Amino acid sequence: MKPTTGTGLSSHELNQPGTYKDVKDTSAVAMFKAIRNSRSEFLFEAAKIPLSGDGEAVFFLAWTTTPWTLPSNLGLTAGPNIDYVLVKTFNPYTHLPVNVVLAKALIPKYFKPEGENGDLENYKEGEKNLSWKALTEFKGKDIEECEYEQLLPFEANSPANIQPLTDEAPKPFRVILGDFVTTEDGTGIVHTAPAFGADDYKVGKKYNLGVLTMVDRQGKFVDGLGEFSNRYVKNYKDDEAYEDVNVDICVKLKKENRAFKVEKYEHSYPHCWRTDKPILYYPLDAWFIKTTALKDRMVELNKTINWKPKSTGEGRFGNWLENMVDWNLSRSRYWGTPLPIWRTDDGSEEKCIGSIEELTAECEKALAAGFNKKLNLVIKGNQLKVDLHKPYVDEIILVSEAGKPMKRIPDLVDVWFDSGAMPYAQWHYPFENKDLVDKGSAFPADFIAEGVDQTRGWFYTLHTLAVLLFDSVAYKTVVSNGLVLDKNGNKMSKRVGNVVDPFQTLEKFGADATRWYLITNASPWDSLKFDISGIREVQRKFFGTLYNTYQFFALYSNVDGFAFNEEYVPPEQRPEIDRWILSSLNSLVKTVTESMDDYEPTQAGRAIEDFVDEHLSNWYVRLSRRRFWKGEYEHDKICAYQTLYECLETVVRLMAPVSPFFSDAVFQNLNEVSNRSKAKSVHHVNFPVADESVIDISLEERMQLAQDISSLVLSLRKKVNIKVRQPLQKVLLPVLNSKMKEQLQKVEDLIKSEVNVKEIEYLTKTEGFINKKIRPNFVVLGKKLGSKMKVVSAALSKFSQHDISQLEKDSHFTVTIEEEPITLALNEVEISAEDIPGWSVATKGTLTVALDITITDELKKEGEAREFVNRIQNIRKDSGFDLTDRINITISENEKLATAINEYKNYICAEILAENISFSNNLVDGIQIEVNEIPLRVSVTKKA
């Protein structure tokens, strides 16, 4: 119950995230004075207390973090098989001699070893260590039915006021037994107030303790509790002058020799998920749905739901269903859906109304019986015209079968019931659209999504009502969204100052980049570490790359007047580079479609990113660049334009669900010129469908080989600081089998051009030439091998070159460890190669490359020619020349570069569109450039 509204909460409301908070409260170990009788006599005898009653007493120690519940105490619960001891000691506050009962295992929490068997006769106030002595040991069942004096007796909680609370005469203030008692904390004896705890209520009912509620629905003590009367048990009003009643109760206990230990204690306490105020466990009359009756069916149907992630459905949600309790349906509120139940005053008859039509008929019966005469109920078209909310519906009186007046019970329906019934309630089922629901058109949902905090909220009520009403799931797939945290993984908080303003973010970076970042950074069900720099990276790397690719296409298509007017060139009639990118494009469509269908938008987005960056921009466009700006507007160039257009158009259609604005802008720009689609927006065209006939897996594999090998060679060039424009002689490629060699030979020219080498040599045996090292992938193998990791690591260190080669060829290798065969996969190890004199070596998976890094004089001259071309191209660009402008070049005399320029003159002229290259001794004007650290002055003029 939440005292701020005086209404109850259901179990799933109390399990919303953040409802349990760590708070510091005053806790007390209270002393309950045992009554001497035949059941407890063994304790008094062990303490050597005379029958006269003079001297020390025996107390049961019970710990509580909620001292405000002590006036409602009716019992003490012990564990039947827990070992308890009677300890002779002194009260640390009153310093009186006492004998206390507590669990043996918890003695160290209250007594220090050095005080054991201390001088009890000469105890002095203020001693640092209490002297103590264990007098006897026994089981919890030995103290069952022992009686004790009421701890805090007042008029309101007197035995005379307890008796009317139960059908039979209650028997309070006894020691009872419960299996829920532990020795993890406290004293091993639980203060039991059946009004304020589920376990307390159950065990109290079993032993007929009664139910004593000394707190009202506003969270205040009732009258008749002396100095505590009408005081709030918690600070519900945020009153700065509030005095903690728990502290005052503990002070009273201390003074009366009824407290053994009082301290501040941090514990988890439930709070209302709406008001953030502490709640009370409180006995309320309420209406319940007996959900436990169909628990097994709910668990069974849950297993048919596609949970994203699966672990939430099997773990968090599945465990919740396994441990569910009945649903507390009623609420004591004003606003909401009234419970449609009418009862007679004596509760002997009741009716549950299921429709307005049924209520109308009952009202007509009631009118005929003489009720509701003053309400002027209006009935039109056989339907009652009245507001069915409070207070109007409460005025309607119905008549029972026996002719008695029936009034509506005052409670409302839990709002979570409304949200759980949403799928069919929105269709006004079963009064309208019945077929939509019954035939599966509108229910169950194919897909829903909400925060992970709804696992025990909306997800639960949807599922529960669907099973109860339809024996069906409410949703076939559910995405349980994670949380958005700050970049360090902390929850965003205004107090901490780490909140990101979404409107400022959208204003600065745009919706598309923000959406794309959110989708691709982490799966929807994983918590996202939100970092503004990540959006910048998305803008630059993904959207920037894609837009630059589009601009490249637009620039050259405008020059050539490409508008997709030509006949569509079948893919099989296009160059291999076009067939490859179209194959990759359609493979991408398959991947994205499968990921989206499997509710994996993150995988889909990342696949699009990889295609745009790795395949389209950095490979296809770069390798095809010359095709767009050189040559006549004929077959090859048309193929290039059509291919790039198709890639751009398909990519923006794929990304449109996540990036609605950017994709629509590019689509409209493309379509405005080509008019290939009659649609005015990318959102009006169908999602792409993969053309299986265009997909060539073999082609994609060998192009991937070419990309990976080129990447390795370029990394080696960077490692030894040799520019790509500097030609090198040879690359050695070890091949694992004939198929690999055949595939590589088909892309050999492409690799040579890309990495600027003269020749590729294939090696079938590398042993003796390239030495490799192998080590375990500790992250992968550690999970697999556990304690055997060290032994396997030692075995790997002894691998021969032949063993490593065999592992690369077969992708697995079996080693015997302690007479047990263990198979290692290629991804479970890391293989590296050692450099050879004159060569640089690198590996990636099964690929190894060795680059000849020796630069001969001939190679050096060619490198200088290529560097010279680069400098002239930069001058053309800076001078604003058109792509097709022809130029003349004059160079100042330079002995160091003259040989290279003259020898490669034809190549240079073709690359820079030069009509002539000449040398001059008197070149005054011109531009100063540098070629391989050699200064040079050149004059570049446009041919008239």
Describe this structure in words.
With 944 residues, the chain is of the alpha+beta class. 36% of the residues lie in helices and 20% in strands. It contains 27 helices and 36 strands. A six-stranded mixed β-sheet has the order 6-4-5-2-1-9. Strands 15-14-19-18 form a four-stranded antiparallel β-sheet. Strand 16 (378-380) and strand 17 form a beta hairpin. Helix 17 runs antiparallel to helix 18 (660-674) and helix 19 (697-720) packs across helix 20. The radius of gyration is 42 Å and the shape is elongated. The protein starts with 19 loop residues before the first strand and ends with a strand.
Q: Which secondary structure elements does this structure contain, and how are they paired or packed?
A:
Elements: E1 20-33, H1 41-46, E2 58-64, E3 75-78, E4 83-90, E5 97-103, H2 107-110, E6 133-139, H3 159-162, E7 174-177, E8 189-192, H4 198-206, H5 245-255, E9 259-270, E10 288-289, H6 295-302, E11 306-308, H7 310-322, E12 327-328, E13 330-331, E14 341-344, E15 350-352, H8 356-368, E16 378-380, E17 383-385, E18 397-399, E19 405-408, E20 412-413, H9 415-420, H10 422-425, H11 434-438, E21 448-451, H12 458-470, E22 477-481, E23 484-485, H13 502-521, E24 528-529, H14 532-560, H15 576-597, H16 601-629, H17 635-655, H18 660-674, H19 697-720, E25 728-734, H20 738-746, H21 748-755, E26 757-763, E27 772-776, H22 778-785, H23 789-796, H24 801-810, E28 812-817, E29 820-825, E30 829-833, E31 839-844, E32 847-852, H25 857-878, E33 887-892, H26 895-903, H27 905-912, E34 914-920, E35 927-931, E36 934-942
Parallel strand pairs: 2-5, 3-7, 11-22, 21-22, 23-24, 25-26, 33-34
Antiparallel strand pairs: 1-2, 1-9, 3-8, 4-5, 4-6, 10-12, 13-20, 14-15, 14-19, 16-17, 18-19, 25-32, 27-30, 28-29, 31-32, 33-36, 35-36
